[in-house]
Design goal:
The chain is an alpha+beta fold and 406 residues long. It has 7 helices and 18 strands. About 24% of the residues have low confidence.
Amino acid sequence: MTLRKGEKMTISIQEHMAIDVCPGPIKPIKQISDYFPRFPRGLPATVGRSGTLRSAVSQPSVSPAEAPREEDEDVDQLFGAYGTTPAEQPAKCQAPEEAVDPEGYESDDCTTLGTLDFSLLYDQENNALHCTINKAKLPKLDYKKGLKPMDHNGLADPYVKLHLLPGASKANKLRTKTLRNTLNPTWNETLTYYGITDEDMIRKTLRISVCDEDKFRHNEFIGETRIPLKKLKPNQTKNFNICLEKQLPIDKTEDKSLEERGRILISLKYSSQKQALLVGIIRCAHLAAMDANGYSDPYVKTYLKPDEDKKSKHKTAVKKKTLNPEFNEEFCYEIKHGDLAKKTLEVTVWDYDIGKSNDFIGGVVLGINAKGERLKHWFDCLKNKDKKIERWHTLTNELPGAVLSD
């Protein structure tokens, strides 16, 4: 094609496309590029009715009837989960938040935070909750995934921490030993909460956290899970193998509203041979913290009243820096069996302080004028000579009237 001076050349895109596939010696791309040097590289473009550019090569459309059946089923399942039709579903969406089922659920956290294998057993007769931590499987964490590596080698020094909610933090925390340089720790370690009642099993939740121990910095949180204790059946072991979750906040207002002073395990036995009442102070659990370090230095005192000669006072040893002390001490009160109905046993727990008055933590009174479990414990002791009877009792913050100080 030759143009004379002053003539205008007009060519349509359709002609261009025709030239592009025309056989013969003509080289259309080279010639047209002479006239359109800025034509975009790659696939040619066509102008749609909207005036916007779109690719001239499009994917073949497939009607819903022609689509594969398996894909239809997948789509139905996908949209069915959200309760919408494909037309209503946005192009990009996120799955709605769902309530976490601690007995096993599918989550991205399974791959990012790892899994934990453990079992729980509520020993109803002994008021104990046993938590056996078996093993965990942790991912190798790196910066590319937006996660902080635990150690420079990508491994961790993991341990497991238990916390009963609601409840004071230090009084309700137990932990396993630390295992070094591993992402597949196996503990096979049993941690036990004592003084757990049926009421606790209804309203409390066990929080289980996996952490990485660091000698030079704060320990790193890896992941956690929470198990409502009402899911457990008394005296039946329940096994769990679940994904760890991200850290959740603790409702501290709820903790304060359900604040407790702690519990004490007491044994009573009237010995016919010794003609005496044997009072055993076995252990305390979940005591209130009285010191600035979040702990107490507890000890227990007992009185058998009325005490005209003021000789009935007995006192255990002091256990340093603990809220779950174990005493295992027994005191003997020589008294006729018939006189016990007129007596009252006062048991008080104190925090030992040097250079100032000791702090009262809580107490309990057993006797014929008591109520509930306290009365039942005393009655069972009087009724069953030479039989040791152990019971847990909740401490109250009311100081017994005759005991004004230590």
